[in-house]
Design goal:
By secondary structure, the chain is mainly alpha-helical. Helix content is 48%, strand content 9%. Strands 1-2 form a two-stranded antiparallel ribbon. The chain has a two-stranded parallel sheet with strand order 3-4.
């Protein structure tokens, strides 16, 4: 959960890129229009900048709350796979105990397929449950949006362990950039626990993508967060 030195981060990425076998069909498939859309990128830059400013405003109170509840790092980072499997480091406010990754094997996976979910995960702290319910834990990812690793709207960014087990049809969901939100987060959040259902929702997003659709999903996400629909 601690920030790795840049050299260590580059080494970690190099190892993952070497070990991850990306199907040739991914590189030969047509580039999805959302990836090259100038308007979508502008939308991401504006939204990412606003979101990052809000993140910085909330940094002090969230940092104090995290430290009082479970002393340790304020941020949590993890390697995720983005567009066409390209690894990148994602950022979140820490919502679990410091040694959460080491305790994962003790928690039962309540999801089906290549995702990990547990509604009552004992590793989540009291402050962490609030951060997750309000999606505040995701706000540092606005930095990833500004960097271009992610988009405001896209698909859920999977872990390397998940992608390393992908079947050929699962790779199709990585034909667009991962997003802070998407159809799964807007219309299901944590209530959807079947990976194949998530894949279908991601592919449906790709088939119906437009900037207007992105705005609609963002509004749906805000509504889901406000009403705590599908939150855990």
């Amino acid at each position: 959960m601690f920030h790795l030195p840049f050299s260590s981060f580059k080494t970690e990425l190099s190892v993952l890129e070497k070990d991850l076998i990306v199907p040739e069909s991914i590189y030969s498939s047509p580039t999805h229009p959302s990836v090259t859309s100038f308007l979508k990128r502008c939308f991401d830059l504006v939204g990412g900048l606003i979101g990052l400013l809000v993140t910085l405003v909330l940094l002090v109170p969230i940092a104090i709350a995290i430290q009082l509840d479970n002393p340790g790092p304020i941020f949590y980072s993890q390697i995720r796979c983005g567009y066409r499997g390209q690894p990148f480091r994602i950022w979140k406010y820490r919502s679990m105990v410091v040694n959460a990754d080491d305790l994962k094997h003790q928690v039962t996976n309540q999801a089906q397929g290549l995702i990990f979910k547990n509604h009552d995960d004992p590793r989540v702290t009291r402050v962490g449950r609030f951060l997750r319910r309000t999606s505040l834990d995701e706000f540092p990812q606005f930095w990833n949006v500004l960097r271009g690793d992610m988009s405001l709207v896209g698909t859920r960014p999977p872990t390397w362990e998940e992608v390393s087990q992908y079947e050929p049809h699962h790779w199709q969901r990585l034909n667009v950039k991962p997003g802070l939100t998407g159809k799964w987060q807007a219309q299901g959040r944590s209530s959807v626990k079947d990976f194949e259902t998530i894949v279908k929702m991601d592919l449906d997003y790709q088939a119906h993508w437009s900037l207007r659709h992105d705005v609609h999903l963002i509004l749906q996400t805000i509504g889901a967060v406000v009403l705590s629909r599908g939150a855990c």
